[in-house]
Design a protein that fits this description.
Elements (H helix, E strand, L loop, with lengths): L9 E3 L8 E6 L20 E6 L16 H13 L6 E6 L1 H15 L5 E7 L14 H10 L11 H19 L13 E7 L7 H4 L10 E6 L10 H8 L9
Helix pairs in contact: 1-2
Amino acid sequence: MPASSPSSCLTRHTRPDRPARRLVCFPHAGGAASFYRPWARYADPGTELLAVQYPGRENRFREPLVPTMDPLASAVAGELLSLPPLPTVFFGHSMGAAVAYETLLRLEGAGTTHVTRLCVSGRSPDGAAGPAVRTDDEVVEAVRALGGTHAAVWDDPDMRELLLPVIRNDYRLIDGYRRPADAPLLLADVHALTGDRDPQVTPEEAAGWSAVTSGSFRLTVLEGDHFYLVPAAERVARAAMETAPPLPV
């Protein structure tokens, strides 16, 4: 079973005896670290699979929600900096793509080079401007419009009451986020992935991630909506876990 300490923002889905590489996954708005648990079946014995656990959900349920990007990305970066360096890939879906990008900016700003690739899924680099305020019904409608396998939970009054504070917080965070215009180019390569019927981002918009890196860029368009990666889990997971190059000596 994956485990993490109450104070940790990282959940470990695999624990190799001798890890050779690391994949760090960032969930979407309203999502949790468990979203990436099924990816463990696709990891080779040398891959350490970690997922970021945002406050206010699962094992961090009692911790205060974080409604802005800077403290969230800074906390994740701080914990990742405490780990032994391994060739690392970041994968973030939707809001998670923005959190992964901001976390990587902080790691590279601290002088690290072991994150070799950023995989961004279901989001353009600048996103779409959201409304200043969303009512509960607007939040639920926005989530339903994205598709996915869990839209039916909003029909359950108890689940709706449980989930609304988290998804409302995350929408506030991502609606208010803007990529810094003066952000330095990433050193890491970037791989953008998206569904061909995603209502939030077109393939052309996803290709805009090419402008954030001085490294290589790759775009993959798969069949599906915003949650194309659920039915295509194996293909997406294996693309994210492509062997990272060794660290320079």
